[in-house]
Structures are given as C-alpha cells and as structure tokens.
Amino acid sequence: MENQLLSSAATHEALPDSFVFPPDQRPPASAAAVALPVIDLSRPRDEVRRDVLEAGKELGFFQVVNHGVPEQAMRDMESSCEEFFRLPAEDKAAFYTEDTDKPNRLFSSTVYGAGGERYWRDCLRLACPFPLDSAATRNSWPDKPERLRPAVEAFVAAARALGMELLRLLCEGAGLRPDYFEGELSGGDVVMNVNHYPPCPDPERALGLPPHCDRNLITLLLPGTVPGLQVACRGDWIRVQPVPGAFVVNFGHQLEIATNGLLKSVEHRAVPNAAAARTSVATFILPTEDCLVAPAAELVAGEDNPARYRAVTFREFMRVYKTVGARRESVEKAFKI
Predict the structure, then answer these.
(1) Which residue in 64, 111, 154, 271 has a CA-CA distance of 20 to 30 Å to 26?
(2) Is 145 helix (H, G, I), strand (E, B) or coil?
C-alpha cells in the first residue's frame, strides 16, 4: 500500500520515468485570458436558460454560482475528502483495488493509453444509487474519517438536484420537454470521483489526467481552491480559475448524443503542481446500463438536420469507450454516423 498511493508519501524527490508524458502530449496552456462563463442561477429563469445554453454551445464548460447547494455541504465534502487522503496508508488499504468492476474503490496512477504513462493522481471512487435509501450503500463507503459518510450523503443529494435542474434548463432552451432527461437517461448510479493530486516534483513533464471527454450525461466539479483544471478551447488549452463557491459544469458524451451534437462533450485535462496538493470532487450523472441513448426526435429534422449519432445502449457505449479510449476523436469515430 505504501508504494501504491502517491499520497502515502509526504514528498516525492524525483518524478519516476513512468509518469513522464512525451512533450507532444502535454502542450502548455495558453497565457491568453480566456475565462469560463460564470452563471448566476438566482437571476430570472429566461436569462439563466439562455446563458446556460449559450455557454454550453460556446465552450462546453461553465461555472455556476447561487446554485442552491448549501455552502456547509460543499465545505464538509471538501474537508472530509482531504482528511481521507491524509489518513495513514493502513486506514485506506481495505479500499485499494485495481479491479475496475468494483463500484467503490481507491486506486492510483492509472496507465494512460498504449504508451504506458501514468497519471499523477490518486482517486477515491464512490457509487451512489439514487435515492440513497440503503444503509448497505452508505456502509460500502470508507468509515474513516467518521464524518465522510454523512458528508457524502448530504453532498450527493444536493449536487444531483443541481445537475437535474441544469438539465431542465437545457431542455427548455433546446426545445425539449423539461423532463426529457428524467428516468433512465439519468437513472444510473451517481458516481463521485474524489481526485487527489499530491505535490509533483516535476509538474511540467507530468499530467494529473490526460486529455479526455466524460462518458456520462453531465458533470459537476467541486474544483477546490488550487487551480489545475484545463479545458480545450479553439485549438489551445485554457486554465480554469476556480470561483469561490462555484461548481464547474461540463457535458458528457451521452448529452452530446441525445442533443444530436447541439451540445458538445469537450476535452479537458488536469495538471499537478509542485507547491500544493489539490483535491477535487467530480459528480457524474449517468444513464442506466440498459438505457438506449439516441438523438432526440425533436432535434432531428430530415435532410437539413439528420441524426448525427447512432442509437446505443449505455452498456454498449461503455464497452466501446473502454476499448477506443476517452479522446474525443476516437469516440466520435465509433459513434458518429
């Protein structure tokens, strides 16, 4: 266990070769001042609906404030997750596994692509069937620190509610019925990735996460106070500066398929730094495994706007996704008509 988690050691004197990405796979981010839109959800609904749709079309990423998730729930989630990664290795050992079929697990430095490079990241992944009405579900999460389980339970319910409200706003703006994404399209487990990026001895040659697109419907990221998220934008990479109290929102491939390409799943990556650890919490809303995801009939209009993606069950999508990888070009090639 001591050698498996990056966060088990207080410091790392040198970057192992297995974490070094080739220069062409880690181009530096732009110095240009391109900021993600910040949308105040307390404004009039017509304005919010328009801004959410426009931000989704323009960048595929935006931040939301005044979103209704209690500040205390956010702070408790952040602090309890940070405390988890500070625990002694023996307190985390029972959750460490490389078995990707385990719904709740702790893992580290996953191999990237065919080159064999590894991410500079530890991750606690938690599956949250919704609604959370089962003690067995809660008991499958780590029991240390003691406040982690109640923090997760309070946070995931509020974060999912926010995600569903954003989906309703997108439906209204795109001309779909407001409840289009209710039911099977959003009925899978809510999956939470608690990503921890320890200080890195050579951050210019490493990546916390390589460029990828999300596989799910919609993602809500509690980014923490330490910057590290970068988003692909017009052939460049832009650094995301977290806004206090905000969630960073982006779309997954399932939303792109369902909206027939009106909204895009955009590539993003995470970079470590030498000075400080960064902990972020990504909340993924997913379809059920057997849900058939296809372009909405309302967004397909004959020869002028034909279906751009083939219908696929989420189970089949994931099988292919795991085979071709998370890069946007590979996924598009597999599912675009």
Answers:
(1) 64
(2) coil
* Residues 105/5, Cβ–Cβ less than 8 Å: no
Q: What string of pLDDT tens digits covers the 337 residues of the chain?
A: 444 788 876 567 889 999 999 998 888 888 665 678 999 999 999 999 999 999 989 889 999 999 999 999 999 999 999 999 999 989 999 899 989 889 999 999 888 766 688 999 999 999 998 877 767 677 889 999 999 999 999 999 999 999 999 999 999 999 999 999 999 999 999 999 999 999 999 999 999 999 999 999 999 999 999 999 999 988 889 999 999 999 999 999 999 999 999 999 999 999 999 999 999 999 999 999 999 999 999 999 877 889 999 999 999 999 998 888 778 888 888 888 8
Pull the structure tokens for residue 117: 């490079």
Q: What is the CATH number of the domain that holds 190?
A: 2.60.120.330
DSSP 8-state code for residue 246: P
- Full residue range of the structural domain in which residue 128 is found: 6-335
Confirm whether 1 is domain-assigned: no
Q: Give domain status of residue 140, yes or no.
A: yes
Structurally, how many domains does the chain consist of?
Answer: 1
pTM confidence score:
0.94
Handedness of CA 186, 255, 99, 319 (dihedral sign): positive
